[in-house]
């Protein structure tokens, strides 16, 4: 059977995004990860403009959120498999006591992940262009709120109305 195509559009410091990871996404992932194909898009309601040869991001919750977003974007890119990046990103997103750049090194250690490559990426042109790709994915959707979920490309807000299966999932 083909996996369910699940996509989450979020931003690293949004309180409802933290709650969504803790109460819904992470518990669901632990139960049924094998039937989900997860796409995480850490950008949310940020804005982007070109400045010289790079992209400048302005985030809803300030520069620390932008830094969290690009750390998570680099982790997704470098770790590739959802089995690897999900526990790491959930660890960061479920920690509401420190900033993402502070919890990330600890979360990496806990999950046997090499953090230095992620850190370097987050400060590089690569991280900047990867984050721009997240902006482009998000801007296709004209979001007004986060977290925002799609299943097989269809907005979760619409689906939950019609599908009992989705209600079982979440
Ligand atoms: C999972 O999603 C990605 C893109 O979001 C896609 O490229 C890939 O083919 C999907 N994999 C499966 C097994 O559906
Ligand atoms: C995280 O970011 C904050 C604020 O931007 C900074 O003061 C702090 O030194 C950073 N911590 C790490 C571990 O990089
Ligand atoms: C959050 O991260 C900090 C720094 O890694 C750690 O000391 C703290 O225990 C974490 N808190 C939670 C609730 O996981």
From TrEMBL:
Query: Which Pfam families does the entry mention?
Result: GILT
The source's superkingdom equals Eukaryota
Answer yes or no on keyword Signal: yes
Entry annotated with the keyword Chaperone: no
> GO CC annotations?
extracellular region
Among InterPro entries, the record links this protein to: Interferon-induced_GILT
Q: Where is the protein localized?
A: Secreted
Question: Which terms does the record give in the GO molecular function aspect?
Answer: oxidoreductase activity, acting on a sulfur group of donors, disulfide as acceptor
Which keywords does the record carry?
Answer: Glycoprotein, Secreted, Signal
Indicate the family of this protein: Belongs to the GILT family.
Name used for this protein in its record: Saposin A-type domain-containing protein
Species source reads Capitella teleta (Polychaete worm)
